[in-house]
Amino acid sequence: MPVISIFSGTFCREEPIVQGLHERIGYEIASDSDMVKKASNLCGISESKIEHAFSAKTSVFNNFTHEKERSIAHLKLAVAQTLLEDKVIFSGFSSQLIPRKITHVLRICLIADMKFRKEAAAAEMQLSEKDAAALIRKQDEERALWMQMHFETADPWDASLYDMVIPMDKTDVDQAVGAIHDHVKSDLLQPGDASRKAANDFLLAASVGATLTREGHNVAVDSVDSVVTIIINKHVLMLSRLEDELKSIAARVPGVLSVNTKVGKNYHQSDIYRKVDFQTPSKVLLVDDEREFVQTLSERLLMRDMGSAVAYDGESALQLVNDDDPEVMILDLKMPGIDGIEVLRRVKKTRPEIEVIILTGHGSEGDRKVCMDLGAFAYLQKPVDITVLTDTLKEANEKIRKKVETII
Predict the structure, then answer these.
(1) How confident is the chain (408 residues) per 10-residue block, as mean pLDDT?
(2) DSSP state, 224?
């Protein structure tokens, strides 16, 4: 039986339509939350972090962690595995991960004019017209950036991407469900040998892609007849060595007959290929109001392949903690506004898993005791030897890794 994929503008009745199809034709529902949960089980990244992959905002640490790319790779694998089950309704962002060469998929777009959507948002969420419009614009922007990431167009509602575009301001739920049901029965959508093979190729490419991300690599992967092609889209100084490593990893994935590599269209741009070393701290937040010191420290950590972001005051640091999920914080005590001890207290209250290293030039023995009692990982004095600091960072990172392994 054909698979159904539904991508919708917000406030366009997606949920009742998906539920109506489930009840009418008995298809199982594969929502974004379902795919996130499955991807999390596959890779060990938390569901909340994988959900961030759908967001327009990318973490300041992503250049070092490739966390968004790892999340998307495992979402693809979750979708590819689920696709083989047939009689499935994919709904949401993850539905767009199904390659176009898989032809036994009925691709649906649900959209409505802004007036309809604003009225629906205002009624459902008790919003003013202005707030409803702002919310919808933000949600449309996330959908546009998602499409731009995966296709040549940034228009989420481009009719050429779908088999059916249903205007929900002119169609009620029962009519939409009926129209989709009628199309599902079309002979053109029944899965043939070529489409089945394409689905299997998608699963193999997704398996290889996920495996490579678990080894710290960020590349594109394709597969045709069990022959895998790896596309390198960032410049690397020792290309042949990277190619050999990628081929060695990919060849170990069951089902791979052979592996080719090639450079992609973005290879000659200025971005440099960076492999993630999961044993090295890559989500370090530096908090210090001495701008020259903290910028120099960030550069010295980068030379040691440690990724960091910088905040110059306590308020900005707390905002970054909320938005970007640092794992380790290097924190000064004496800052204008919210001081380091108060930042430490708030972080340990709301995000106790973050390891905090105090690095100060003004602290007393009493400050040391307060900080350690609040849960600081270490208390260091300026000036600090960079080797001592990096060793302390690695120890904090190792503690975090062991916690994660225990949870998994």
Answers:
(1) 94 97 96 98 92 88 90 98 94 96 96 96 93 95 92 89 96 96 84 94 98 95 97 90 97 97 84 79 94 94 91 95 93 94 97 96 91 97 94 93 70
(2) E
Residues 38, 35: Cα–Cα separation, whole Å: 5
Report the candidate in 50, 2, 56 with the shortest Cα–Cα distance to residue 27.
Answer: 2
Q: Are residues 83 and 167 in the same domain?
A: yes
State the pLDDT at residue 270: 65
> For residue 189, what is the DSSP state?
G
pLDDT of residue 396: 95
DSSP characters over 101-125:
T--SEEEEEEE--HHHHHHHHHHHH
- Domain containing 249 equals 215-263
Q: How many domains does the chain have?
A: 3
**CATH number of the domain that 361 lies in?**
3.40.50.2300
Cα 173 from chain centroid (whole Å): 32
**Residue 156 tokens, joined:** 């989420």
Total length of the chain: 408
What is the DSSP code string of 2-31? -EEEEEE-TTS-HHHHHHHHHHHH-PEEE-
The three-point CA angle 388-394-396 to 5° equals 105
On whether the CB atoms of residues 91 and 29 are closer than 8 A, the answer is yes
Write the single-letter amino acid at 407. I
Name, in order, each residue with C-beta under 8 angstroms of 216's C-beta and a sequence gap of 6 or more.
66, 275, 276, 277, 278
Q: What is the pTM of this model?
A: 0.88
* 394 inside domain: yes
DSSP 262: E
- Edge-first strand order for the sheet with 308-311 is 308-311, 284-287, 328-331, 355-360, 378-381
Question: How much is the pLDDT for 365?
Answer: 93
Q: φ, ψ for residue 224 (rounded to 5)?
A: -135, 120
- Where would I find the H helices in 84-170? 114-125, 129-150
Please report, for residues 294, 349, 350, the alpha-carbon distance to residue 376 in angstroms, rounded to integers and kept in the order given: 20, 12, 14
